[in-house]
Design goal:
This protein has one helix spanning 2-44. By secondary structure, it is mainly α. The N and C termini lie far apart (98 Å). The relative contact order is 0.06. Residues 46-75 are annotated as: Disordered.
Length: 75
Amino acid sequence: MIPLASEGDELLHHLLLDYALKGVIVVVAVVVLAIGMVVIWRKAGRPQGRDDAGRPRRTGDIGAPPPRRDPSRHK
Protein backbone atom coordinates (compact mmCIF):
# COMPACT_ATOMS: atom_id res chain seq x y z
CA MET A 1 0.00 0.00 0.00
CA ILE A 2 2.80 2.44 0.71
CA PRO A 3 4.17 2.35 -2.89
CA LEU A 4 0.70 3.17 -4.24
CA ALA A 5 0.39 6.15 -1.93
CA SER A 6 3.79 7.35 -3.10
CA GLU A 7 2.71 7.08 -6.75
CA GLY A 8 -0.46 9.01 -5.96
CA ASP A 9 1.56 11.77 -4.34
CA GLU A 10 3.84 11.96 -7.36
CA LEU A 11 0.86 12.14 -9.70
CA LEU A 12 -0.76 14.88 -7.61
CA HIS A 13 2.51 16.82 -7.54
CA HIS A 14 2.87 16.48 -11.32
CA LEU A 15 -0.72 17.63 -11.96
CA LEU A 16 -0.41 20.63 -9.64
CA LEU A 17 2.89 21.65 -11.23
CA ASP A 18 1.33 21.31 -14.70
CA TYR A 19 -1.66 23.43 -13.63
CA ALA A 20 0.61 26.13 -12.19
CA LEU A 21 2.78 26.20 -15.31
CA LYS A 22 -0.25 26.61 -17.56
CA GLY A 23 -1.52 29.41 -15.32
CA VAL A 24 1.79 31.26 -15.63
CA ILE A 25 1.67 30.87 -19.43
CA VAL A 26 -1.84 32.37 -19.53
CA VAL A 27 -0.86 35.30 -17.29
CA VAL A 28 2.19 36.09 -19.44
CA ALA A 29 0.08 35.88 -22.61
CA VAL A 30 -2.49 38.31 -21.18
CA VAL A 31 0.25 40.78 -20.19
CA VAL A 32 1.82 40.60 -23.67
CA LEU A 33 -1.61 41.10 -25.25
CA ALA A 34 -2.30 44.14 -23.06
CA ILE A 35 1.07 45.71 -23.92
CA GLY A 36 0.42 45.10 -27.62
CA MET A 37 -3.00 46.72 -27.40
CA VAL A 38 -1.54 49.80 -25.69
CA VAL A 39 1.18 50.14 -28.33
CA ILE A 40 -1.33 49.83 -31.18
CA TRP A 41 -3.70 52.30 -29.48
CA ARG A 42 -0.93 54.86 -29.12
CA LYS A 43 0.43 54.41 -32.64
CA ALA A 44 -2.82 54.25 -34.61
CA GLY A 45 -5.57 55.10 -32.16
CA ARG A 46 -6.14 58.78 -32.98
CA PRO A 47 -4.74 61.39 -35.34
CA GLN A 48 -2.01 63.64 -34.03
CA GLY A 49 -3.33 66.92 -32.71
CA ARG A 50 -6.81 65.58 -31.94
CA ASP A 51 -8.41 64.36 -28.72
CA ASP A 52 -10.43 61.15 -28.26
CA ALA A 53 -13.63 62.79 -29.57
CA GLY A 54 -11.93 64.01 -32.75
CA ARG A 55 -11.83 67.66 -31.69
CA PRO A 56 -8.63 69.68 -32.10
CA ARG A 57 -6.64 69.78 -28.89
CA ARG A 58 -6.25 73.02 -27.01
CA THR A 59 -2.69 74.33 -26.95
CA GLY A 60 -2.50 73.95 -23.18
CA ASP A 61 -3.30 70.23 -23.25
CA ILE A 62 -0.54 67.90 -22.18
CA GLY A 63 0.92 66.18 -25.21
CA ALA A 64 -0.62 68.63 -27.68
CA PRO A 65 1.65 69.78 -30.47
CA PRO A 66 2.77 73.41 -30.28
CA PRO A 67 0.72 75.88 -32.32
CA ARG A 68 2.03 76.53 -35.82
CA ARG A 69 3.10 80.02 -36.76
CA ASP A 70 2.08 81.61 -40.01
CA PRO A 71 5.38 82.70 -41.62
CA SER A 72 3.68 85.53 -43.54
CA ARG A 73 2.59 87.21 -40.29
CA HIS A 74 6.00 87.04 -38.57
CA LYS A 75 8.52 88.89 -40.73
